[in-house]
Amino acid sequence: MPEAVIVSAVRTPIGTARKGTLAATPAEDLAVHVLQEAVRRSGLAPERFDDVIFGETLYGGGDLARYAAVAAGMTHVPGVAVNRHCASSLTALGMAAAGIRAGSERAVVAGGANSSSLGPALTWAAPHSPERRTPPTFPYTEDANDFTDMTVGWNVAQKYGLTREQMDAWALRSHQRAVTATAVGLFTDEIAPIKVTRLDGEIVEFAADEHPRATTTAEKMASLKPLRPEIEGYSITAGNACGTNDAAAALAVLADDLAREEGIPVLAVVRAWASVGVDPKYTGVGAIDAATKILDKTGLSVADIDLWEINEAFASVPVAACRELGIDEARVNIYGSGCSLGHPIAASGARMVTTLVHELRRRGGGRGLATMCAGGGQGGAVIIEVP
Questions:
Q1: What percent of the chain has pLDDT over 90?
Q2: 37 three-class SS
Q3: H-helix segments, the chain
Q4: Would you call 242 a catalytic residue per the annotation?
Q5: Beta strands at 51-55 and 79-82: parallel, antiparallel or unpaired
Q6: Is 343 an annotated catalytic residue?
Q7: Which residue among 33, 85, 211, 343 is the active-site one?
Q8: Which of 99, 155, 156, 269 is most buried (most C-beta within 10 Å)?
Q9: What are the residue boundaries of the Thiolase N-terminal domain, all occurrences included (predicted)?
Q10: Which of 33, 85, 86, 242 is catalytic?
């Protein structure tokens, strides 16, 4: 059985939605950019690829992966769009690895693209009401609905007894880590700068994440109002929640025998992938359960993982995960995550793995685990190993 190996991992810089540098750039353009760059960096000819699998979320139609393939000149390569909400691009990577290990494909590009600024959103009309809502992923109840600040942020904070101070401190550190990493160029290897037209018409080369805030302080975090002040003690704020963002990320995944035949260096091996379902009321727990499942199925322990990426959909998620699983916070999101870098939903999973690949290579190897919750009471995780 062939191993699934990553031979390139790349992303765009992350833009702030609706007012940032990528606010006028469609998700399709972002997808084409990372697809072309992932293929170029792989060293394998475009015509050798068997499929493109891209995550996309809430767009209500189309096939982002096929669009990108055709626009990139890879007309003969099919494409499939995957929607597992926040975990979409992690699922895309797992699907690519599964196809390769099964022997049905030898070369796949997996990733995701997200434009919160421009992406269409399918909505349904409600009977006898002027309101329109996105199609549900699960049957809504009073305690479990599409308000993610409650099902991901607040309910998880309540379940694990987390304080606002703990979540604010995590979010502040996330910004500090992201700002420092950007300043010293630690994202340079993984970012593919992209030439875009800004909202004001200016053409620029976008090369660095713009969401992290160097001026964020504990005092500013503490001054932010809760998102639902009508609920007593509500501790979720804009500061300890993720950003709304635009970005894309992609990884070229090959069969290890193909990489050897072509003399292509291996960056990492995809060791395992997993998905879970949880009570939608506690959607944030999906990140914990997905990590637990993937560790169980590989026989690995928390101590066997050198670096962790636990998506900061809300700061409550990584805080709870570290407490519940006994993870050293110093090994988690070492260069920031959703609260600071931002959360370009369909691209975040691939972004997390991309960051793990490049950082583990800088460290001379090791294992990395990316895990995240996903809308509707789900979670996804991937383990990679850099030799």
A1: 90
A2: helix
A3: 27-42, 64-71, 88-102, 148, 155-159, 164-183, 218-223, 256-262, 286-298, 316-325, 348-362
A4: no
A5: parallel
A6: yes
A7: 343
A8: 156
A9: 5-254
A10: 86
339 is catalytic: no
Give residue 253's Cα distance to chain centre: 17
> Residue 269: which residues within 8 A CB-CB, separation 6 or more?
3, 4, 5, 6, 256, 384, 385, 386, 387
User: Mean per-residue pLDDT for 72-82?
Assistant: 97
What is residue 15's three-state secondary structure?
Answer: strand
- The per-residue b/e assignment along 272-292, b for 16 or more CB within 10 angstroms, e otherwise, is bbbbbebebbbbbbbbbbbbb
Q: Distance between CA 6 and CA 251 in Å, rounded?
A: 7
3-state secondary structure of 325: helix
| DSSP string across 224-252 | SPBS-TTSTT---BSTTB---EEEEEEEE
SS3 label, residue 90: helix
Mean pLDDT of 245-254: 98
Q: How far apart are CA 259 and CA 53, in angstroms?
A: 20
With cut-offs at 50, 70 and 90, classify the pLDDT of residue 383.
Answer: very high
| In the predicted structure, residue 55 carries a pLDDT above the cut 80 | yes
Residues comprising the chain, all counted: 387
> In terms of DSSP bridges, do strands 245-255 and 4-11 run parallel, antiparallel, or are they unpaired?
antiparallel
Mean pLDDT of the chain: 95
Residue among 242, 322, 339, 373 flagged as catalytic = 373
Residue 47 phi, psi dihedral angles, 5° rounding: -70, -10
